[in-house]
Amino acid sequence: MFDINKILRPNIKNLTPYSSARDEFKGEASVYLDANENAYGSPLDKDYNRYPDPMQYQVKKRLSEIKGVPPRNIFVGNGSDEAIDILYRAFCNPGVDNVIIVPPTYGMYEVSANINDVELRRVPLTEDYQLDVDAIAERIDKNTKLIWVCSPNNPTGNSINRADVETLLANFSGLVVVDEAYINFSRQKTFIQELTEYANLVVLQTLSKAWGLAALRVGMAFASEEIIEVMNKVKPPYNVNEASQQLALEALANVDKVNGWIKETLSERDKMVLGIKDLDFVLDIYPSDANFILVKTTDANGIYNYLVQHGIIVRNRTKVELCEGSIRITIGTPEENVKLIETLHSYKG
Hints:
By secondary structure, the chain is an alpha/beta fold. The protein is 36% helix and 15% strand. The chain is built from 13 helices and 11 strands. The protein has helices spanning 4-7, 10-13, 21-24, 57-67, 80-91, 108-115, 133-139, 162-171, 225-234, 242-252, 255-276, 300-309, 334-345, and strands spanning 74-77, 98-101, 119-122, 144-150, 175-179, 201-206, 219-222, 282-285, 292-297, 315-316, 326-330. Strand 4 (144-150), helix 8 and strand 5 form a beta-alpha-beta unit. The longest helix is centred in the C-terminal third of the chain and has 22 residues, at 255-276. The radius of gyration is 22 Å and the shape is globular.
């Protein structure tokens, strides 16, 4: 049975969070002289002299309408990476606790573990890039606080078997974090729908991928109210700036446009696969539920360097565990994709 008090760090449990001026007064006034801001405005076309809403209420309200989750179950951060770091700082005692990752997977889980001095336990995915549930169970001990699952997975692109994730949720007393950065491109339904069933579930999403807001750094975590309260307690007081909040709200009003991009991306992904699958140096193209494909080749380094020479940048993943010889190709515009396909067809090896 999950009990947040059993995995929460004692110092975080007893922490009194910083109380900002915007926390102490939340109404409307004509004169604000409480936060030591520049009262004259900003040397820009738009004023940014006032601190932003520390809890991003309007953004959460709109996300609530789109995702079907109450605002109290939503954390908004400076990219998903902030949520990842906060989960380490809130639930993992440095030098004592450990977490489990399932490589190949998103690299920030490991980087944040190292920054926070938390032991990292690797349980590689199977050959078909699925969870090895039995091996994960063998690595869990009393100090295991988090299990990280990226689905659809980066860099492999496939969705993780839902039943396997549910097995972890039902049998693990720590947090299972399901990173759904690419869920908008997936045929699999989001785990957000399972929040009421699993108290130890945290779902990460982002506006960086399908929503096209990578430069603004807006990420989300969805979890129980008690987990979100902890994350808000630990975060910096104004972790998402005013410009990002305003622009995110504008973007979130354009769901139809984003859905159109998603549809076109999936169509272009299929064209990309058809365009390169019969090339002599392509050994395999793994099934993808994301806006990229992982391609196993005979010479990842040579292909990568050849593409660079032609002004095309892909991601060389040959040094990643279980991705030897592979390159990761993001699906671009139709014109960009045609250029990549034509360039690959001219590669002689």
